[in-house]
Amino acid sequence: MSNLDIIKDILSENYLAADQDLLIEENRTRKKKGFRMEYPIHKRAGIAHCLYRYEDDAFPFFKFPKTGKGQKGVKGLKKMCDYILFAEEQGDDRLYIFLIELKLGPTSA
User: Fold this and answer.
1) How far apart are CA 97 and CA 78, in angstroms?
2) Contact 34, 76 (CB under 8 A)
3) Burial class (CB in 10 A: 0-12, 13-18, 19+), 102
4) C-alpha span between 95 and 50 (Å, rounded)
5) pLDDT in tens, 28-56
6) How many CB atoms sit inside 10 A of residue 3's CB?
7) Among 14, 37, 84, 91, which residue has the fewest nearby CB atoms (within 10 Å)?
8) 77 and 64 in contact (C-beta within 8 Å)?
């Protein structure tokens, strides 16, 4: 059994990204001008991957307290990354994990 198979057994398939070959970020709020960013995942022979997306509202774990006046949260620890990519190369026992945060511009989250 490969490392990716183990990950797929542990993590719910409900959080697998709909498109396993494309990173997509969209503005879904009406407050700001809409945008859509797409970045392809370039495949290489012998490297397999699986891409998970945990929507902030749908995934209740790893949430950190809010920051601001009168709140006790830690600045910068209130958001989940956009994607988690697990990858492995054929014949290699190592599992590579990439935490991916997409940005519209140079502004920090």
Assistant:
1) 21
2) no
3) middle
4) 11
5) 666 667 777 889 999 999 999 999 987 76
6) 17
7) 91
8) yes
